[in-house]
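Just curious: can you write whichever protein you like plus the matching structure tokens?

***
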Amino acid sequence: QVQLVESGGGLVQAGGSLRLSCAASGRAFSSYVMGWFRQAPGKERESVAAISWSGGSTVYVDSVKGRFTISRDNAKNAVYLQMDSLKPEDAAVYYCAAARQSLPTWEYRNSWKYDYWGQGTQVTVSS
């Protein structure tokens, strides 16, 4: 069993930055694909970014490319999402997720491939 705990959310002005963290329990963390998803009120959950077990492969939704960076530290069982140049449309609850099975890169953004989810952290962006 893996437990994921997100932190780092909050209120920020448009153009500002936040860094989300996800702390994971469990020995197998370094073998998991990790993803960040978000869900705004009235909208479906969407993939934001994902990263391979080694950190060598990353994927992003087009709307955050060039502004967000996903990274991981397997020694600390942690994954991060650096969010820069935030926009009001980035406001949502952000979730960290872990996938046990090995995934091809093109499946990194499919939420149904993920086995474990955190409770979410709220990001609010004021205009």
Summary: The longest strand covers residues 92-99.
